[in-house]
Design brief:
By secondary structure, the chain is of the alpha/beta class. The chain folds into 2 domains: about 250 residues, Alpha/Beta hydrolase fold, catalytic domain (Rossmann fold), CATH 3.40.50; about 100 residues, Rna Polymerase Sigma Factor, Chain: A, CATH 1.10.1740. Strands 1-4-8-5-9-10-11-12 form an 8-stranded mixed β-sheet, with helices on both faces. A two-stranded antiparallel sheet has the order 2-3. Helix 2 links the parallel strand 9 and strand 10. The protein is globular and about 65 Å long. The mean pLDDT is about 95. It is found in: Cytoplasm. Belongs to the AB hydrolase superfamily. MetX family. Keywords: Acyltransferase, Amino-acid biosynthesis, Cytoplasm, Methionine biosynthesis, Transferase. InterPro entries: AB_hydrolase_1, AB_hydrolase_fold, HAT_MetX-like.
């Protein structure tokens, strides 16, 4: 079996003119979703897998978008998806999309508001994980997919996979919930709020309508990403990769970049601020905060998941302190309580929350073994 990239991947766009009523009651009159597909949909249309992205993710999941810059334009989960890889595109038809509210081609705050012709900006309504599931279901309809063989995601993507099994149980046969949680802790909500405040208080934010001022709140977005990135890494990883190493020969006794970890965080912040939309960042973090499927069942996650008919793979990582293994075990325990089919793995990894993006032999072997069980 070959293990290669899916090759050059081209984005596609689907337009939906039927209004979408969101959980908040707001209505998006029409919208577009940008997506990519890999592999071939079989005659029975039974081999489709949906990949749900995390906070800063998008539709470009595998392959490369620019043949002249292959390494720089690889999809964010290229090590997981492709011919002979754990999610094998020789078996499955894989769909990755940019969620509603995103900034990679799908309708979002930077898109024109049909009512004004100007970018939506602050007027773009808040979206929830439930809203994304409904929009993703419309894309499945457009592609002729009645039920996904699996819905797969890490972090916020894993929350979407979980929500699919609750909202549309007949349309998903398996769910892979990786490095996720059934809801955010107060600490996680606090991190998100500090990140949002960095953006909201940036003078260049202009109440979310910075597009009209031909600027962007780069300083706030940079700080938000720096804070977020700290929570994605583990203490062990930062100690091993950076320690207390200095950039120069000695202490400068000032407030510039002196330690290598400072240089790394500022580089990551600057890079992120150069391509991500601040309003989308606000929307995505709020969707994280609002996610709580057990709220509708009086706080009982088991009751919320009782509707699910899918089989589950739940994966956590030992050094992930943002969404710790204990949070994944809450999902597993609720499913076990209901007598539902669930496989669970806790992977020893030094990469913290970012572990779900890494090429780890044990992790990939577990995902591969589970995916090989799925009949198409």
């Amino acid at each position: 079996m070959s293990t290669h990239s899916v090759g050059h991947a081209s984005a596609q766009s689907a337009r939906f003119d039927e209004p979408l009523t969101l959980k908040s009651g707001a209505v998006v009159p029409a919208y577009e979703l940008v997506y990519e597909t890999y592999g071939t949909l079989n005659a029975a249309r039974s081999n489709a897998i949906l990949i749900c992205h995390a906070l800063s993710g998008h539709h470009h999941v595998a392959g490369y978008s620019d043949p002249e810059r292959v390494k720089e334009t690889l999809g964010w989960w290229d090590n997981m998806i492709g011919p002979g890889k754990p999610i094998d595109t020789e078996k499955f038809f894989v769909v990755g999309l940019n969620n509603l509210g995103g900034c990679h081609g799908s309708t979002g705050p930077s898109s024109p508001n049909p009512a004004s012709g100007h970018p939506w900006g602050a007027d773009f309504p808040l979206v929830t994980v439930e809203d994304w599931v409904q929009a993703q279901a419309r894309l499945a309809d457009r592609l002729g997919i009645d039920a996904w063989a699996a819905v797969v995601g890490g972090s916020l993507g894993g929350m979407q996979a979980l929500q699919w099994t609750i909202d549309l149980p007949d349309r998903v046969r398996h769910a892979a919930v990786i490095a996720a949680a059934p809801k955010l802790t107060a600490e996680n909500i606090a991190f998100n709020d500090v990140a949002r405040q960095a953006i909201l208080t940036d003078p260049d934010f202009h109440g979310g309508n910075f597009y009209r001022h031909h600027t962007k709140p780069a300083r706030g977005l940079r700080l938000a990403r720096m804070l977020g990135h700290i929570t994605y890494l583990s203490d062990d990883q930062m100690a091993e990769k950076f320690g207390r190493r200095l950039k120069g020969e000695g202490l400068a006794y000032g407030f510039g970049v002196e330690f290598e970890i400072e240089s790394y965080l500022r580089y990551q912040g600057d890079k992120f601020a150069s391509w991500f939309d601040a309003n989308t960042y606000l929307l995505m973090t709020k969707a994280l905060d609002y996610f709580d499927p057990a709220h509708a069942t009086g706080g009982s996650l088991a009751a919320a998941l009782a509707r699910a008919t899918a089989k589950f793979l739940v994966v956590s990582f030992s050094t992930d302190w943002r969404f710790s293994p204990a949070r994944s075990r809450e999902i597993v325990n609720a499913l076990v309580h209901n007598g539902q089919d669930v496989a669970y793995a806790e992977i020893a990894s030094s990469f913290g929350h970012d572990s779900f993006l890494m090429k780890d032999e044990q992790y990939h072997a577990i995902v591969r073994a589970y995916m090989n069980r799925i009949a198409v």
